[in-house]
Every structure is written in structure tokens, then in C-alpha cells.
Amino acid sequence: MKDFNPTTVDEFINAAPQESQGIMLRLKKLIEVTVPNAEEGISWNVPIYKYYGILAGFSLAKKHVSFGIDSLTTEMREILKEKGYKTGKKTIQIKFDQEVPTTEIKELIKEQARQNKL
């Protein structure tokens, strides 16, 4: 997807490799269902959702989808690591053959929305 400048989240997802699309569609749906008033868009050439500031986003790597959110705590990173996910300070890597950690991501989205409204 080098030199690709999507204008919508759906355009970004549709241009991605087939094996990554299911993960991104699941993340998109999770964000939309958890915070229905979140504004969908493209920033920094990747899908970003805003709700009183940046809520969450995701991007594509060679072998995984990276979900980014500021509310990712050390405790949550440990929980996700135990379940086989690689995490960074504010990211969760979801390999193409892994399920989306729905419960944890939903919790993170709710917390980020709460923090953004403060």
C-alpha cells in the first residue's frame, strides 16, 4: 500500500491484502458499536477515529494489523501478552491468523472515550 492515499476507511480496508481485511473490518465495527458518535476518517494515511480527540486507529503491517489506542495500560498489555498478542506502549499487533481480542479492545475504547470527554 506504498504511495497509496486513501480518503475513507473503507477504501483503506478494500485496498489491503485479503488476509488483513477481516481484522480491520472487525476493528472498524467494534469502534463504531462501542462509540457510535465517533468520527471516522483518515489521518497520517491510516484509519483514525475521533471522539473529543483521537479515540483509536489501526494500520497495516506486513504480517499483522496494528491497533493503536492511548488508554492501553501495562496491566492490559500483560493480559494481551498472555493471550499471545504482541504489544507496544500504545499498540496491539493482531497477526492475520489471530482473532481480534474483542473484549479487551472494547474495554480500551470505552476507557479512551471516557478519558477524552474529561
Strand order of the largest sheet: 1-2-3-4-6-5
Distance between the termini: 36 Å
- Strand residue content: 15-25%
What is the CATH topology assignment? Aspartate Aminotransferase, domain 1
The shape is globular
At the first level of CATH, what is the class?
Alpha Beta
Average pLDDT, to the nearest integer?
96
CATH architecture: Alpha-Beta Complex
Protein structure class: alpha+beta
Low-confidence stretches: none
Protein name: YdhG-like domain-containing protein
Domain YdhG-like: 21-111
InterPro entries: YdhG-like
Pfam families: DUF1801
Descriptive account of the structure:
The protein has helices at residues 9-15, 18-34, 74-82, 102-117; strands at residues 39-43, 46-50, 54-60, 64-68, 86-87, 91-95. The protein is an alpha+beta fold. The chain has a single domain (9-112), classed as Aspartate Aminotransferase, domain 1 (Alpha-Beta Complex), CATH 3.90.1150. Strand 3 and strand 4 (64-68) form a beta hairpin. Helix 2 packs across helix 4 (102-117). It is globular, with a radius of gyration of 13 Å. The chain starts with 8 loop residues before the first helix and ends with a helix. 30% of the residues are buried.
